[in-house]
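User:
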Amino acid sequence: MVPDKKFIEAVASAAPTPGGGGASAYAGALAAALGSMVGNLTLGKQKYAAIQGDLKGVLLQLKACRETLLRLVEDDAKAFSALARTWKMPKATTAQQQLRHAAGQKALVDACEIPLQIMRVCAKVIELDDFLAHNASRLALSDVGASAALAKGAMEAAALNVYVNTAMMDDAPTAEAFEREAKDLVKSFSYQADVLYDYVRHEISGR
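Assistant: Predicted structure:
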């Protein structure tokens, strides 16, 4: 199967979008897809009959995560484009400068919120991977670890898109709230992903 070369080439181009946020969302969607693969490989297997009900719920959640992250690829591009448009607004007069600045500050809110949404969904993928690692088919355990590693990387990459935008915000309390949530998500779920990764590595290598 040929990868989505069009998206990769778009990221590689000189165009500012898709950029780090969109790439983060796409990587997160791949992480969710890997988790779904593991779940689907386990679904219907008699050996795992006891978890079939829970597994179906996990698969529904992973599908929702995947679809949301793919939508956020586009949403992130839209949020950046809206912010970039404010940089092109007239600034010859004081009134124009004030209008331009106000529009930019408003656009920064969405530019922070979208990568935070990406982070929240990636955190959910890590949580679901944890269930799969301890309950799903052992034959696909390495794929669960790969999913968690991708989700962690996507979440941490998205966090940088929060910080670069909060740095331009005048509203310090709002900026601090965005940054606090981003830091909390990274602290909690990067740790969970690392623990999960180490568990998988130990289980598949025996050391």
